[in-house]
Amino acid sequence: MELTSVLKFLENRTILVTGATGFLAKIFVEKILRVQPNVKKLYLLLRAADDKSAMQRFNTEVVAKDLFKVLREKCGANFTTFVSQRTKIVPGDISCENLGVNDSNLLEEMWREVDIVVNLAATTNFDERYDVALGINTFGARHVLNFAKKCNKLKVLLHVSTAYVCGEKEGLMLEKSYNMGETLNGTLGLDIEAEKKVMDKTLKQLEAENASEKAITTTMKELGLERARKYGWPNTYVFTKTMGEMLMGKLKEDVPLVIVRPTIITSTFKEPFPGWVEGIRTIDSLVVGYGKGRITCFPGNPKTILDVIPADMVVNAMIVSMMAHADQRGSETIYQIGSSLSNPLEVINFRDYGFNYFTKNPWINKVDGKPIVVGKVTVLSSMDSFQRYLALHYLLPLKGLEIVNTACCQYFQGKYSELYRKIKFVIRLIDLYGPYLFFQTVFDDLNAEKLRMAAKDIGIETEVFYFDPKTINWEDYFMKIHLPGVVRYVFK
């Protein structure tokens, strides 16, 4: 790799960013604009029908966010002008050829001007419809690659994937690529084009049967899980992301390709300020459920390592890595960005941080105005013990309440509905995230460590583009940054 000043590398660059309204994309865009105001242009691709609706989405879902308050204060009255001069909002869709960009003049302009392509568009829903996940995570990745090949000045294509493409493998997960058709359980026959045919055939059959939209959605979700688990992946999300990596690696030709695989992304550590987060992100489902009194137990090994990494560190790693591998024709480099190897956090610590925080700062119930009292979550060491706990403490009382409610002419319907929703919520979370609560994988981040050390040795802006998880004190981070951020930006 060749390292130089990152700020100098970014100067006068033209960057295409897909998925521009996403969580990481917003942080990436804000960082570039804030630290290198002399960037030439950011083409920001987002899903929209036309220019007007695209601009409306950008204004309401991106620059209006608190995330941009530091940049807004820095620019003052010139903020809107500054942003408009350095960004071009592009309506499109990566599930389509040419990224769904219909303006031929704009296409030619982008192919002529773009230096760097950053693919952040994805659906991260664990049980997404198979047709949707294939369109965005798998074939969308190929469309982005094909677009990048047409960029005359392309220096690097950076694709953001996920560390959990490894499935549920135990041990040290190396920063290795997946060959076309490779599976996690040894099952033969994975063919990406064939997967599309299976999906298309199922959709056509449903349409021929005049199935309702709800029925189609349910069937497509079940199909995704079925196909993923057939080949060894736990959910549709990681399966389709893996196939996207396979396509890029196979078809890249001379494109310099960098794949960044973050682990569980959490709120910002330092920049633009600590604690910014958006949406319910993986472990924050547990945080919200616990803080609101819905979760009193969950299955998991208390000693399981929970691999989390702040979002600003992921973005910084992205920026440094795309600079390090610019112009390396035909190369493919994978960076796993996480903390499990160098600064491990155990499930039991995460539980205790949550208990300590919500004991001192209880969430106020909006129905009765009373603080919600939380207890220490019971961590059950096996799925069997969880099932027994659930049956004894929830399902049996629910059945009893159902009988009493029926006998009393639905007098206890409100209480019954509340308990039913709570149980359904817990079961849903465990179904989606259960495999990760017993996760025995540690992610090797040797490439990221080499990149950090090289940057440090050369003395390039390591204070600006920090991404070393060893610098994080987890107790301070969760108690003073992440949990307050989740309460502020996610709790409703």
The order of strands across the largest sheet is 3-2-1-4-5-7-11
Largest sheet: 7 strands, parallel
Overall spatial form: globular
Structural class: alpha/beta
Number of helical elements: 17
Strand content is 5-15%
Keywords:
alpha/beta, 7-stranded parallel β-sheet, two-stranded parallel sheet
Write the layout of secondary structure elements.
Elements: H1 6-10, E1 14-18, H2 23-35, E2 41-47, H3 51-63, H4 69-75, H5 79-86, E3 87-92, H6 104-113, E4 116-119, H7 130-149, E5 156-160, E6 171-173, H8 192-208, H9 213-230, H10 236-251, E7 257-262, E8 264-266, H11 283-291, E9 297-299, E10 308-310, H12 311-324, E11 332-337, H13 347-360, E12 378-380, H14 383-407, H15 413-437, E13 441-443, H16 446-458, H17 474-489
Parallel strand pairs: 1-2, 1-4, 2-3, 4-5, 5-7, 6-13, 7-11, 8-10, 9-12
How would you describe what is shown here?
The protein is α/β, with parallel strands linked by helices and 492 residues long. It has 17 helices and 13 strands. It has helices at residues 6-10, 23-35, 51-63, 69-75, 79-86, 104-113, 130-149, 192-208, 213-230, 236-251, 283-291, 311-324, 347-360, 383-407, 413-437, 446-458, 474-489, and strands at 14-18, 41-47, 87-92, 116-119, 156-160, 171-173, 257-262, 264-266, 297-299, 308-310, 332-337, 378-380, 441-443. The strands form 4 sheets. It has a 7-stranded parallel beta sheet with strand order 3-2-1-4-5-7-11, sandwiched between helices. A two-stranded parallel ribbon has the order 6-13. It has a two-stranded parallel ribbon with strand order 8-10. Strand 1, helix 2 (23-35) and strand 2 (41-47) form a beta-alpha-beta unit. Helix 2 crosses helix 12 and helix 9 packs across helix 10 (236-251). It is globular. The two termini are 45 Å apart.
